[in-house]
Amino acid sequence: MNQHFKDIILKATGASELYEIETIQNLWSGYGKIIRIGLEGSQYESVVIKHVKLPDNSKHPRGWNTNLSHERKVKSYQVETAWYEFWNQQCDDDCRTPHVLALEHLNDEVLMVMEDLDASGFSGRLSSVSWKHMQACLKWLANFHATFMNQAPVKLWEVGTYWHLDTRPDELKIMDNEQLKQAAPAIDKLLRQGEFQTLVHGDAKLANFCFSEDGRQVAAVDFQYIGGGCGMKDVAYFVGSCLYEEDCEVMEKQILDYYFQELKLAIHHKHPSINFEKLEKEWRELYPVAWTDFHRFLKGWSPDHWKINSYSERLAREVVQSIHLK
Known about the structure:
By secondary structure, this protein is α+β, with helices and mostly antiparallel strands.
């Protein structure tokens, strides 16, 4: 990290000295690091730094190394910076996110200085979940979607999620499921043309949720793919990130009932003029469509991925069949 960025951190935190505690994560395809920085002489004991430095040549772990892939990543960091600068302050304690202390651009580098969520009581990271943990994440998603209901995604992705069809032509092209490939534009259209649109996190997997000690509250991170869309895209993707296929099927009603219970409370509080019954009906019908949209991406991106299972295949067949019947 260059001296200019160190000076930015010191100024933003009022610290006299800083030191690196640990590298939390190397960013996908070598685009930088997330680092925990310790501070001396500051009200903050530590902060988290997301330092993006765009490489000349990226090495993608699955072989996707194209100009389009690079451009998508570059835009994702521009979007995340815009999120923290213009949108993040709308989030309250029911959809907690890290507070941002400074943002800085310099040539091909970006520095984000953020609150250390571990120090704020959200130190839990989980690889498997109980129903209590799922409830916390579903409540976060419901409140997040309610907060941004009907807001245009200015400076963000027009359509959120990293698997959105328009940004993934390479994966679509090599799919061997012709019926699903042909139905892909119609699936995308169904999700985009719903009456009720919000902001979607775009990468709402279990790994991007930070849990409180008792597991009943969460904060979320990683807003590179936030943009407009149907909230079911986040819910379907979250469920697929933490449950195996049997549980996805068995718990489907329980999951959706709880999400819509929390969404109803949040909508009535934040947007009382919205017809919630109409919203719930539309989004419940779009849940399998959202699931199929991600399934379409996986079939092209990584055909042997563990998330491709009989539950996903069944939902996709039913969605494709319903499209052909229209």
